[in-house]
Design goal:
The structure is a homodimer of 381-residue chains.
Chain A (H helix, E strand, L loop, with lengths): L3 H6 L5 E5 L2 H9 L3 E5 L6 H14 L5 E5 L13 H4 L4 H8 L4 H13 L20 H11 L7 E3 L6 H9 L4 E5 L2 H10 L3 E5 L5 E2 L5 H12 L4 E4 L5 H9 L4 E4 L14 H9 L5 E4 L7 E4 L2 H7 L11 H15 L23 H22 L5
Parallel strand pairs in A: 1-2, 1-9, 2-3, 3-4, 4-5, 5-6, 6-8, 8-9
Antiparallel strand pairs in A: 7-11, 10-11
Helix pairs in contact in A: 2-3, 3-7, 6-14, 9-10, 11-15
Pfam family, one (chains A, B): NMO
Protein name (chains A, B): Nitronate monooxygenase
GO molecular function, one term (chains A, B): nitronate monooxygenase activity
């Protein structure tokens, strides 16, 4: 699967694999794809450094990238990155936490209590905090990222702030930004983004309402000649062929890696839920981050969707509000509440396999689809 | 675009065009596709007969079909089709109308009044009644349909009742049924349906929540070896190539024909709205029929979606409740309220063109997509 973009980025197959797990990202690159490490869960830059160091040694010289989460609107380049550089961002976090209404905190407590989620042990720190989208944290991550020969900087929330774009381009690193509509995509293009990831309705994580079949060609047309990666609903080689037929220069896959052997979900119960889920078992909900994000439908998302529940708070408040709760749900594997961002392709994920096996299926399925299309078109090859 | 199914049905291209307009259906067949006439708007069998008569003379011997709307659950084959055969179904309609709450009628009146929709003239009959999904009406339509050499009977609401299936098969007419999930599709297969139309989230009209990119391959796998047509999000040849890459044996297009020259929308204002709408200007709403159906987002759908509005009634009550209102909105072209079922591809519909021109674009775009995919796959053809 060779496109203009894949040639430019020096990758064998135009398959970009987004994952929060370094072992998965490295395996994707080794398989001939482009591994992209999601940085949002790293609140300490040193941990990100450790993992990039590891990836650099385990990608066999192949290309890889990093995905940060930077809302352009939150950019405050003039503020000192002080404690964020120490790895916590706690000061800013405390100021933001003060904006969370007590009624929302009570709702979280009550929901956890209803499902018997154990209280944190005294002095127990949250194992999982979504602080990566706090501007200062994201900036401290970038200080680390540019110490490594990354070949792509992606931003899940659209165009990064202008100074970040400049910095990436100074390092000759192309920047990709996710878009859920042609309008978003044009805005990213105007901001100077190099690659647009068209994130369809069926995708896991933050997503809009336009499905990939319509969104991909619309974004391709809107930002021409910028290259577009199709994201959302892609987990087989046939789906890759479909996305490329729609004009994408490559595909961006996230969900399918969650059930690979290399994924470090640290929860057998969650892996079992993912393997059992059908395509109809996800929901677009604001319960996790404050913005609509597709995820497994669980008792947790149902609780937030109930008629008498409080409205989820705007990003980043909702993420801070639920961080401890999500961490405890995961730690104690409280099954009814246990979830994760994942797309509608979860229905295709029915067995745990090594990344290489998944990748081999992608390339084989792609070739099968091309054979089939040539037959339909009356071109015997 | 030749598949096993297109060969079996004797059609040049595996492109099925669904439309309520005989002139459009006939033009699709003449262009080398398979025109399917939607019968839901015919309450009088004689009108359907007149239009099928016309189609028979204007399809040049090419294959065409009819789409009825029969909820399997409403099947009452033992009831006499009495007044329905006379063309109205008014008796049953009256009994059903009695189930509509007065509060809902008042909401409709108030909404129409707010937008200045004129009252009906004394004695003016509704020009548009969705009575086609009343079982008796659908059955009286079938009496007409089987007098013509139709090559396909489709049912927009799933598998038709068993006796209808038998009747179609006695006439050697294959039956297609729309499905929004693999579970629906398997149910249709078990009922004896011959072709499944996988109707993705992005489609116009009644639709589920699984997008085409995921739904199509899932349904293909679920009902193998039954042939599957992909519906939802398809308006270009590139999208046809994508759908066929996903394993479909053909595509089912509805929205794109609405802005063809041959379409008899009888409303310049509605045509203008369709040509101006973007992919984000549709909504899945129960306001029109009682089941979620994608349509243009209008002040009418917004009114029903407002927090203090009554919940839409179940099918067929909602359709009967709003039939007169929709008819008056269309007749008087009350622009803010004016809408129609249409899919997210409405964003691609930017000029009024003859069916033949649309069809030529489909075949050209398909060939372009195949060329491109062969280049990506490293197969120079």
């Amino acid at each position: 699967m060779e496109t203009e973009l894949s040639r430019r980025l020096g990758v064998e197959h135009a398959v970009f694999g987004f994952t929060p797990f370094p072992a998965v990202a490295a395996a994707i690159t080794r398989a001939g794809g482009f591994g992209v490490l999601g940085a949002v869960r790293y609140s300490a830059p040193d941990e990100l450094r450790r993992d990039l160091e590891w990836m650099q040694r385990h990608t066999g010289g192949g290309p890889y990238g990093v995905d940060v989460v930077m809302p352009a609107a939150m950019a405050r380049p003039e503020e000192p990155a002080g404690d964020a550089a120490d790895g916590a961002g706690t000061d800013l976090e405390a100021r933001i936490e003060a904006l969370i209404p007590e009624g929302h905190r009570e709702f979280v407590r009550a929901t956890l209590a209803r499902y018997g989620v154990p209280d944190p042990a005294p002095g127990e720190a949250s194992g999982w905090r979504i602080t990566g989208w706090l501007d200062q944290v994201a900036r401290s991550q970038l200080d680390v990222v540019f110490d490594y020969p990354v070949r792509l900087l992606a931003n899940a929330l659209g165009a990064p702030p202008a100074d970040v774009l400049r910095r990436a381009h100074d390092h000759r690193v192309p920047v990709a930004a996710l878009a859920g509509s042609a309008r978003h995509a044009r805005r990213h293009q105007a901001a100077g983004v190099d690659i647009v990831v068209a994130q369809g309705y069926e995708a896991g994580g933050h997503t809009g309402e336009i499905a990939s079949m319509v969104l991909t060609p619309e974004v391709v047309r809107a930002v021409d000649p910028l290259p577009v990666l199709a994201a959302g609903g892609i987990g087989t080689g046939e789906q890759i062929a479909a996305a490329l037929a729609l004009g994408a220069q490559g595909v961006w896959l996230g969900s399918v890696w969650l059930t690979t052997r290399e994924a470090e979900l640290h929860s057998r119960a969650l892996t079992r839920k993912l393997l059992a889920a059908g395509s109809g078992d996800t929901v677009r909900s604001r319960a996790l981050t404050g913005k609509p994000a597709r995820q497994l439908r669980t008792a947790w998302t149902d609780a937030w969707d109930a008629a008498d529940s409080p409205d989820p708070l705007p990003m980043p408040l909702q993420g801070l509000l639920v961080a401890d709760a999500v961490s405890r749900i995961q730690r104690y594997e409280v099954e009814p509440l246990l979830g994760t961002p994942v797309g509608q392709v979860v229905g295709l994920m029915t067995e745990e396999r090594p990344v290489q096996a998944v990748f081999d299926d992608l390339t084989r399925g792609f070739e099968r689809a091309i054979d089939r299309l040539n037959r339909v078109a009356g071109r015997v090859t």
